[in-house]
Structures are given as structure tokens and as C-alpha cells.
Amino acid sequence: MRQPPGIVHLVGAGPGETDLLTLRAARLIASADAIVFDHLVGGGVLELARADAQCLYVGKQAGHHTLDQAEINARLVRLARDGLDVVRLKGGDPFIFGRGGEEILALVEAGIRFDVTPGVTAASGAAAYSGIPLTHRQIARSCVFATGHFHDGSCDLDWPSLARPDQTVVIYMGVGALPVISAQLIAHGLAASTPAAAIRNASLPDQKTLLGTLADLPEKVRTAKLTPPALLVIGEVVRLRDGLNWFEQT
Ligand code: SAH
């Protein structure tokens, strides 16, 4: 008899700390036949999996792609066609710089059932655990998420829209391009003294926050040899950390 068709659950694993998972994510992980996971998924999260679940690492670290995107898509389709209950686990939220949309389009094309479970995105995790609210009355009325990583190696963002006043800019994958980002934001009108932070491993015990200004953060990040995964937060809200840091020993 034919097996019932499988399903792929696209699940956000949050920024790292296991108990920042949603209850639904934890339930799906605990019952999955197969878990296909990325580099940024915290180790504790996988401990929730069944002992007999197939766990497949397809992690993408800059420059070290285990499988390319087409191979990951094909793997998901194959596992689901084998009738398995598959969890595709991604760091943070799958629809924020997670290529979740691309993977789902491949599933749709192949006629595979799917659903999506949101996760705490790195920006929310970093904001909470560094004590930097992303919006604040009279300080930041809008908040923009952007990526500092472009596949052609450039960093060509919409600088005038990022350099608006009363706005918080959060940049994912921006450590490498920080010197360019800082210079462009200043060139497009933000004060060189605008507060800025780089937050590495947000929510994890070794979280590290570097504070500075648009002008001096690139040098501080370079001196501290801060490596990914880290998030940049730029805007007046960064000043609030002084009174709101509750997590990190400084
Ligand atoms: N889908 C993910 C983002 C994936 S892109 C999400 O919603 O969070 C990968 C980038 O996310 C990293 O380069 C880094 O900029 C950021 N990131 C992910 N986890 C992080 C963490 N714990 N601390 C700081 N930045 C993180």
C-alpha cells in the first residue's frame, strides 16, 4: 500500500537559547521523523528530537556551504515523498533572511504539503538580551531590517531610506560590511556620533555586545575580532542600553 504523503514543517528555532522556541516548534521537533537543520540552530534545540529521528545538517556558514540551496530543496522533497514528517529547522524566523520562501516554493512545485512556524528573529532576541528596545517613544518611530550580505560581495543598500531620522536600523550579516555601512550612512546624513551596537551570539551565555558610534564601531569590531553571527543595531535607542542591560556582565 502507498504510504501517506509526507509533510515539511518550516520551523523557526529562535536566536539560540532553547527555551526561546515556541511551544509549537518544540512539539514539531519532538515528533519529527527527520530534521534538516542549519548552522545557527542551537544544540539544545536538537536534544528535543526523537532518538530515532534522522538529523541532517545542511548548515551554511559564510564560505562553507555543506549543500547548495537546490540540493537542500531536493532533499526536503525526497524526505517528504518517502512519507516522512520533516522539520526544516532554521535559526531565528524562517521568513526573515532565512530563504524559507525559496524552500517552500520548491515544495509547492513538487506538490508537497507544508506549514510554517515563526520563530524569534535575531533582531528581537538581540534587542531583548542586550537591553536595546528597537522602538521607543520619541526616539525611534520606525525600525528597518536589512542585510549586509550580498551574493556578489557588494553591500549596496538603499542608503537614503536607512539614514532617516528617528529610525532604528538593524543589519543582519553586516559585520564584514560594517566599514562600508558606517561610511555610507554618514555620507547619507546620519551623524557620525549616532550610537551603534554590534551584538554577537544574542541570547546565549557568551553573548557579547560592543557599543560605539557609527564612526568608531568598525574599529572596535575589528580590534575585538568580533566574528559572525552578529547583528548591528544603529540609532538613538542604543543609548537606552545603559539603563536596561540585564543579561550581560560588562
Ligand atoms: N532567519 C534568521 C536570520 C538568518 S541570517 C533570523 O530570523 O534571525 C544569519 C544572520 O542572523 C547572522 O549573520 C546574524 O547577523 C544574525 N543572527 C542570527 N542569530 C544571531 C544571534 N544569536 N546573535 C546575533 N545575530 C544573530
Compact overview of the structure:
With 250 residues, the chain is an alpha/beta fold. The chain has helices spanning 23-31, 43-46, 69-81, 100-110, 122-130, 159-162, 178-187, 217-223, 241-244; strands spanning 7-12, 34-37, 54-57, 60-61, 64-65, 85-90, 113-117, 142-147, 167-172, 195-200, 208-213, 230-234.
Secondary structure elements and their pairing?
Elements: E1 7-12, H1 23-31, E2 34-37, H2 43-46, E3 54-57, E4 60-61, E5 64-65, H3 69-81, E6 85-90, H4 100-110, E7 113-117, H5 122-130, E8 142-147, H6 159-162, E9 167-172, H7 178-187, E10 195-200, E11 208-213, H8 217-223, E12 230-234, H9 241-244
Parallel strand pairs: 1-6, 1-7, 2-3, 2-6, 8-9
Antiparallel strand pairs: 4-5, 9-12, 10-11, 10-12
Helix pairs in contact: 3-4
The structure holds S-adenosyl-L-homocysteine.
Task: Outline the structure in words.
The model has no long low-confidence stretch (mean pLDDT 93). The longest helix has 13 residues. The protein folds into 2 domains: 111 residues, Tetrapyrrole methylase, N-terminal domain (Cobalt-precorrin-4 Transmethylase, domain 1), CATH 3.40.1010.10; 123 residues, Tetrapyrrole methylase, C-terminal domain (Methyltransferase, Cobalt-precorrin-4 Transmethylase, Domain 2, 2-Layer Sandwich), CATH 3.30.950. It is elongated. The strands form 3 sheets. Strands 3-2-6-1-7 form a 5-stranded parallel beta sheet, sandwiched between helices. It has a 5-stranded mixed beta sheet with strand order 8-9-12-10-11, sandwiched between helices. It is an alpha/beta fold and 250 residues long. It has 9 helices and 12 strands. Helix 3 packs across helix 4.
